[in-house]
């Protein structure tokens, strides 16, 4: 039968421990919080009071509930007060010896069936557990900061964790509204292993001058829908913390994805720790500020590419999903669009999909019915590439699988270039990777990943504004130009 948990002990009431105590107390559990000294106990109490007061201020907790919550928490400086606990969560400093000491001491205090958990981020749960006489009852419970808000908890099993312990802890976490996931005992567990490999890769890209910090961050925000770019996120986490996490994972797993990019260490040594020191990958208007201010790397207005041609008509070659989306982006922005397909039926398909997409936007209140027809009227379809002779920009978006078949791609592209009047300065952009050999005049080609985004409707004032923005939505316009 599954264990019943009624009393939860929390050892260490710092950032994480106070949050974990709050999580359980909010759900009606009796909580016993243990700290090192009266002074740190008082700090823990303040953490709890401030956090629950914020919840009251935001209308997420009533004052009466806050008071009841605080009454469910007993604070102590004596581990012996954990005798009644059914579960103890250790959240003290990240030190193996200090954690082992707690797990050793708990042996003589808690009931034999009590479950012991550690909130460690990077130490080995197995090593911590061996300090206890019954390592089978030890698991990792990795809460995320801030614990009352973040839903994810990684439950870490060691090779000796008893299956019923794992099941009971996972069920308990689910019952208090968390979303537990189970992982083996490897530094980084699931989320940090994946996240920090990605963050480290972004740093390496920046270090290798592959792209600017603004473009690296924009790519992940606007291309993948992440709320923050990787470099801005590293500034928030703190470069010193990120370095330590990567270094620990690298030393344990030897996966070169986690070998900290050298510039990370250099920045840490130079005191560029991110927001906390006011400077990291970006510069902030002071320590602990989130407001980015310009610095030497901020692109100046003079760097912004100028458009040398007036763009009025855009040709789109292709009739697939991407081509249809690209047609929509340009037509909604006020450009006349010529779609080239391999058959009338395929061209008609683009027109139908475009109409369907606009209908959906009208239904969702994102577009006025009256604005629909003018957009549809801007699209014309053809099966002849010669009809591209007068367009100012050609976007190639034919199927990726065709791109593998050299002739299928090279020929249409050569045709495009042969058909174009050089005086019109045709601009070629591709919706996917293009090998330079495919193009007779690679200098005229810009590879732009054109992905329609919801709300990408900035448009231009008039029909002949001639300013073409890449879909970024920030204040660094880029123009496709030859
Ligand atoms: N901060 C985070 O974002 C985060 C996220 C997930 C996990 N963690 C992990 O959680 C643990 C705690 O981190 P934190 O950020 O809350 O640290 P913290 O420094 O804010 O708090 C640690 C607290 O433990 C107390 N303490 C130290 N030794 C003790 C002992 N022997 N008995 C009782 N109390 C003791 C300290 O007085 C302090 O109040 C660490 O293992 C850390 O790796 C941290």
Automatic annotation (TrEMBL):
Regions annotated as coiled coil: none
3-hydroxyacyl-CoA dehydrogenase NAD binding domain sequence ranges: 7-185, 313-403
Sequence ranges of Basic and acidic residues compositional bias: 471-482
Segments for region (Disordered): 449-482
Gene Ontology MF: a single term: NAD+ binding
Domain 3-hydroxyacyl-CoA dehydrogenase C-terminal: 188-284
Reactions the enzyme catalyzes: a (3S)-3-hydroxyacyl-CoA = a (2E)-enoyl-CoA + H2O; a 4-saturated-(3S)-3-hydroxyacyl-CoA = a (3E)-enoyl-CoA + H2O
The UniProt record lists the keyword Oxidoreductase: yes
Pathway: Lipid metabolism; fatty acid beta-oxidation
Keyword annotations: Oxidoreductase
Entry keyword Magnesium: no
BP terms from Gene Ontology: fatty acid beta-oxidation
NCBIfam families listed in its UniProt record: PRK07819.1
Stated name of the protein: 3-hydroxybutyryl-CoA dehydrogenase
Organism: Rhynchospora breviuscula
